[in-house]
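input
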Amino acid sequence: MLDDELVIETPERVELHYVLANVGNRFLAAAIDHLIQAVLLMGVFLVLTAVDAFGQVGEMVSAGSWALGLGVFAVFFIYWGYFVLFETLWNGQTPGKRLMRLRVVREDGRPVRFFEVFVRNLIRLLIDMQPALSYAIGVVSIIFSARSKRVGDFVAGTVVVKERATEAPSLSEIMNISEIEQRRLERATAAPFNADTRLLNEQDLRAVETFLKRRYELRDPNRQMLAMRIAQPIATKLGIATAGLSPETILEEIERQHNARSKYF
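output
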């Protein structure tokens, strides 16, 4: 395993491999985001200037006060809410992170939620960007942390990882793959066994579902070995004959029969 590689084993016994984002990648991503923020702040300043000028011409005393209040709120939202908004809506990414192929995830490899995003960016503002908005504390924390985490990541339980080009398909590509896979499973001839999936517990079903969803992230022979580790005990529990069937075929058929049964029960 590489020094900058993060390996997470999920409760379903699936190993997820990530490459940690280093200081350079994160600095460039932050620079892009702060440049966008600067442009937005400039737009707010121009709007406020125009509103103030309009208020003076029209002798509207309250216009300037309202503009000042809205301006303070807009500056705070752009400066802090920018990161919270994008990382929540874009599943751990901001425009800068997306361009640099970085993503914030939870320590267990799962997508971040609003709570983690809120906490890590609150700590960014209060601690990581200090002193004097220099990011000195955050940079030192990333350099000396085993998982390249700033203080906000430690508090929120998150980590920033790189996405390889082959592991970061677009949403349309993901949907196409999912549709093609679903049609293939529907057209496929049923495997020569009938599984009573009611004998499986929630952990068994979760292991099958998680593997089939994430198998394309795994490389051979790890993918084949993991499929075998999941399929063999489940096949034994169901008492089905698996001769001539690959582990992945067994898991696909078990999921198909479970989904078919779930429609009616």
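quick obs: The longest helix spans residues 23-57.
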